[in-house]
Amino acid sequence: MLKALFSERLMPLVILVVLVPLVAFAQGSDADVASRLEALTLRLEALDRESGAIRAEIDALRSLVAGAASVPADDLTQIEGALPAATEDLTKIDAVPAPAASDGSLAGVDVIENAPSAAVSKIFNPDIAIIGNVVAHAGGDNPEERDAIALQESELSLEAAVDPYAKAKFFIGYSDEEVAVEEGYIQFVALPWDLSAKVGKMKASFGKFNPTHFHTWSTTDAPLVNATFFGEEGLADSGVSVSKLIPAGAFLVEATAEAFRGSVEGVFEPGRSSDLFYDARLRAYRDLTENSNIDVGASFATGTLPETGGSSRFTGIDVSYRWKPLSRAIYRSFLARGELIVNDRDGGPDSAVGYYASADYQFARRWLAGARIDGVDRPDDPSITDRGQSLMLTFRPSEFSLIRGQYRRTDYGDGFEADEFLLQFQFGIGAHGAHPF
Amino acid sequence: MKRTLVLALALVAGSVAQAEPLNVVTTTSDLASIAREVGGDRVAVESIARGYQDPHFVEAKPSFLLQLRKAELLAVVGLELEIGWLPPLIEQSRNSEVRPGTDGYLDLSAGVEILDRPSAKVDRSMGDIHASGNPHYWLEPGNAVRIAIQFRDRFAKLRPAEAPYFTARLNEFKVRANDANKRWTEALAPYKGAKIVTYHRSWSNFARRYGLDVVDFVEPKPGVPPSPSHLFELVQSMKEQKVKVILVEPYFDLKTPNSVAQKTGAKVIVMYPSVGGAPGLDDYFKLFDRNVSALAEGLR
Q1: How many angstroms separate the CA atoms of A128 and A170, rounded?
Q2: Percent of the residues in chain A that have a pLDDT greater than 70, as a whole number
Q3: A246 lies within 8 A of chain B by CB
Q4: What would the CATH number be for the domain defined by B187-299?
Q5: Which structural domain, as residue segments, surrounds residue A33?
Q6: Is A216:B26 a contact under the CB 8 Å cutoff?
Q7: What is the pLDDT of residues B7-30, one digit of tens each?
Q8: How confident is residue A86, by pLDDT bands cut at 50, 70 and 90?
Q9: Chain B neighbours among A 1-60 (CB < 8 Å)?
Q10: Beta carbons of B110 and A73 less than 8 Å apart
Q11: CATH 1.10.10.10 is held by the domain B2-182
Q12: Rg (CA), chain B
């Protein structure tokens, strides 16, 4: 069909090309001939252009036909006109658009410039995600009043690049009672010497549990040691954090040093504005096999006590062992973790010691079982020790939601005993966050 | 003869300015394989994910930071395939040379043929859907060449003195890919139009290239494990349409596909979506040789 069109439309042109000189010569009169010759030359040129346009149209149609066929073009060498290596102008490598397949036989094959997706107009908006967290509670003999069911603290996160040098992240916690900035900081990612720095309000890099957000936990609650030593919100404050990566053979070492304003409710309270609280952490990671790895860390934090004005020091060690067989990664994984924290206070009695040890095993694609034991001496009276044991079962319908049951038994050092059942519903909408590690 | 000449020429051109090899990190082993084809000994390529691993669910292990912190080029599949694990790695690597938007970051989805682009508004009720199209585009030789071209362009930009070498290797790769593709096309030609079922939506580009008809998936929606009701429907529709094979990626459990196969008389074929998915599948050509012959065998 195309061929027929081609020859039909070009035939007059061919005839004209042949006839024009003959007709011109037959006329004979000089000036007349000259002007007519010129006119005819112009006409011929116009026709020539027209035939070029027709040819281009045919090529375009051919490529459309080729594109509509279900099988892509066969000759892969033609995907881009192969440039002879020796004559290639290096300066033009990026400037020159790839030449189109001009012979038509392999139309429509080249690097495809994919247009950015429709979301491009929103590209400068931060990535937004909201994680809801509903916890139902049953069981009693509990020193604290608890709701039967409540939308507990949920989290709104906003994240975007500030400029070529920094990212900003905000995590806003909200519950029935309050809305608070859990974290909000700028992170400088383009520093030399493997350094990274954060400025703003953030969770202190103390141990493994403290820096995490609730939606990455494998439990509905924080271990007793973290809740008792660092309070509901954890060790978080306004300050500066600098960390450095130090490759050391098979180990990856990360050293972090932080200085904070010094005010953490119930934990640190500055008498003067120069009473900062400091935090330091050294962590070493290594792969044991491609399926397993170990992560060990030591942390230290010191600040001013709320009432006495003396200093309070926390020293912690932590160990994590992870196993995840690469070829079955979506079905099986295991994580064992332990953390021990000691609190010393000026003028206080003995040190208070707290710990937790937990194990979580993923036994099916969407199922996870876990256990945790934890305990802590009360810092103001270390002779009183609270102890807890928990069993967890988690079902994750998808990456974006989970339902978790936790049975928790707590022996409070002052005589209370509590057997509780917690049921958690957690769900996230918005930007796809990173998988927890 | 022609090949040796081109290589010799490239060698001469290259030896003029022999620099340190370009440090390239790719997210997947397939990109690594194609990068090696184009880069030869002028690039040192490492892949983060292994071929037998589901590339959606790689863990952001700190050991990858060791690779990333010294990388001069990070090549990614894109289309949100790596969204769950790559952003924190880039951030923690402290390597500002490989951040998105720099010359050290190459998203290969920008220049390839993308299928399964959702035409309507998407949300997560559709499963773990990729809003910009199917990220498994590398499983098609035409796209392999498009990936190679993009590698050549970027390598040449980062190492201008080596550009002729990369171009010579690219052209050689095109010829080899073209020859190999003729072979694969021939091997699958008798099964044109064959109806197949796949576990995940990994084989759209592959199926289009070789004229196979993917009629259904073992997963009801991307990333969603099969439910009993979906499997019941799947068995019915496979029987009606006389589907003979179920293609399963090696990182999925075979139990469900096997039971579907048993009920329908179809055959389960483990198809490797990535280089290194099994011992011996060391490069892109071996990967396709193996997959094409296993598929032809299964469809016979």
Answers
A1: 10
A2: 76
A3: no
A4: 3.40.50.1980
A5: 2-76
A6: no
A7: 554 544 444 445 789 999 999 999
A8: very low
A9: none
A10: no
A11: no
A12: 20
